[in-house]
Amino acid sequence: MQARRTKKRALLVVNPRARRGTGTIAAAVKLLEESGLDVDEVKVGEGETIADVIRRAADGVDLVIVGGGDGTLNAAAPALVETGLPLGVLPLGTANDFARTLSIPPDLAKAAEIIATGRLRDFDLGEVNGHLFFNVASIGFSAELAAELTEKAKKRWGVVGYAIVAARILLRSRLFTAHVDHDGTTERIRTMQISVGNGRHYGGGMTVEETATAEDGKLDLYSLEVDHWWRLLALLPSLRKGTQGKWDDVRAFQTTEVTIRTSRPRPVNTDGELSAYTPAHFRILTKAIRVFAPPPEALAKPAP
């Protein structure tokens, strides 16, 4: 007869290509083990994905801890939803916007303490054409940025890398036409970027909407309908605060489902990765994932 496990077993998967992905988690793992967890670190093998690792180990673990950034979490999302395993986050990426949305601190020991407390919360996920996302999906400027910002640049320059590449793309950006179907209406717009957010933060601390959370059951859409690149520069402070919807040349609304159509297929950036093309159908998946996170009052505080 097999011995009954008394300690909870945690599957730990770390993205070695994350900006802080090597040599930084020993103290966090020690804290987790001292809290009573049996931590089993598994590396992603050649030809497999992080989702494959989670699916393979699902029957023998109680939770999954992911060390990486938003792209790593995005890659893990399908398996987390399928298995129902709770998620612990060790922020090792460049931007760590999902951790920021949940007020999970960038300090790995403090992030590990949150997992060790065992406090779980239910959070929503966004979905576009079958692809899940934690933070935001964008068409236009951000998708071009994701295409050009290499892993090497992100690892070397961090958030500064976003700014360098963004400035170069901004100078050549042009408006495009899109049809937006939502809530029984169709709007034809000319825009530089359309963003559909599930959480609050994206792109290294930009904000989808100042009151957005990843547990409000809503998608927050905004469209930058500016006619000159310098106008976007004027918008930057509002984009960081999430108050851009108050500007006349920014369209913003909440919904639970929206379809965006363009005259030619345009890539969709989900959590920093290009994963789909227009026509893009977005929807919210409420309470789709359980995450170890600070209590609700902490989520309302400014992100670290």
Mean pLDDT: 86
Count of extended strands: 18
Number of helices: 10
Return the CATH topology of the largest domain: Tumour Suppressor Smad4
- Beta-strand percentage? 25-35%
> Over all CA atoms, what is the radius of gyration?
19 Å
Structure notes:
The protein has 304 residues and is of the alpha+beta class. The protein has 2 domains: 111 residues, Rossmann fold, CATH 3.40.50; 157 residues, Tumour Suppressor Smad4, CATH 2.60.200. The chain has 10 helices and 18 strands. The protein is elongated, with a radius of gyration of 19 Å. The protein starts with 7 loop residues before the first strand and ends in a 5-residue tail after the last helix. The C terminus is likely disordered. It comes from Kumtagia ephedrae. One of its GO terms (biological process) is phospholipid biosynthetic process.
Descriptive labels:
about 300 residues, alpha+beta, Rossmann fold, Tumour Suppressor Smad4, six-stranded antiparallel sheet, disordered C terminus, nucleotide-binding, ATP binding, Diacylglycerol_kinase_cat_dom
Provide a concise account of the structure shown.
With 304 residues, this protein is of the alpha+beta class. The protein has 2 domains: 8-118, Rossmann fold, CATH 3.40.50.10330; 131-287, Tumour Suppressor Smad4 (Sandwich). The protein is built from 10 helices and 18 strands.
